C-alpha cells in the first residue's frame, strides 16, 4: 500500500535526506532494522532503503539522481510516495566464455558445479568486474589450478 508524505530535503554530513513519518514506518516490515522501499519523489521512480536513526524517525537518503529526476534540490519540500519493496533481487552473473571453455577443456565442469552456490556466485561476480582479457585469463588459470588440486577453499583472486 503506497504511503504519501511531503518533506523538506536537508543535509546531514555529506548526504541529503528526509525524515519519514513514524506513522508510515510503523506499518512497514523491517529487516535487521532497515526497510527496503520503492517509491517516487515528485513522480520520479526510485528504490532505496530506509535507515534507522537512534531517537529519531527513519531516514530516507536522497541521492543526486533522485534530486535531478524529481526536479528538486536541498532545502526544498518534495512529495514522496513510498511502499514496501517485497522483491528480493538475487543478481545473477553470467559465466564468461573463457571460463566455460577452460572448464570444458580441462574436464572440470562437474568440479565447478559441485562448488556451493554462494562460492560460484562470488567467483562469477568477481570475474564480471575484470576489465582486461589478460587479467581474466590469469584469474581463470588460478581457478582451474585450484579445481585440479581439489582445493577445499576455491577462490579468486
From TrEMBL:
SUPFAM superfamilies: AF2212/PG0164-like
Name of one Pfam family that matches: OmdA
Lineage: superkingdom: Bacteria
Protein's recorded name: DUF1905 domain-containing protein
Gene source species: Emticicia agri
Amino acid at each position: 500500500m503506497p504511503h504519501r508524505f511531503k518533506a523538506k530535503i536537508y543535509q546531514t554530513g555529506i548526504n541529503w535526506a528526509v525524515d519519514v513519518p513514524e506513522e508510515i514506518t510503523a506499518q512497514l516490515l523491517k529487516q535487521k532494522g532497515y526497510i527496503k522501499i520503492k517509491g517516487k519523489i515528485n513522480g520520479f521512480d526510485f528504490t532505496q532503503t530506509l535507515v534507522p536513526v537512534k531517537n529519531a524517525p527513519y531516514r530516507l537518503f536522497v541521492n543526486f539522481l533522485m534530486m535531478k529526476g524529481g526536479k528538486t534540490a536541498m532545502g526544498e519540500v518534495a512529495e514522496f510516495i513510498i511502499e514496501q519493496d517485497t522483491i528480493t533481487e538475487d543478481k545473477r552473473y553470467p559465466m564468461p566464455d573463457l571460463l566455460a571453455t577452460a572448464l570444458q577443456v580441462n574436464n572440470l565442469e562437474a568440479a565447478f558445479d559441485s562448488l556451493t552456490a554462494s562460492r560460484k556466485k562470488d567467483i562469477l561476480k568477481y570475474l564480471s568486474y575484470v576489465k582486461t582479457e589478460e587479467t581474466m585469463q590469469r584469474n581463470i588459470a588460478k581457478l582451474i589450478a585450484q579445481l585440479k588440486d581439489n582445493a577445499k577453499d576455491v577462490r579468486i583472486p
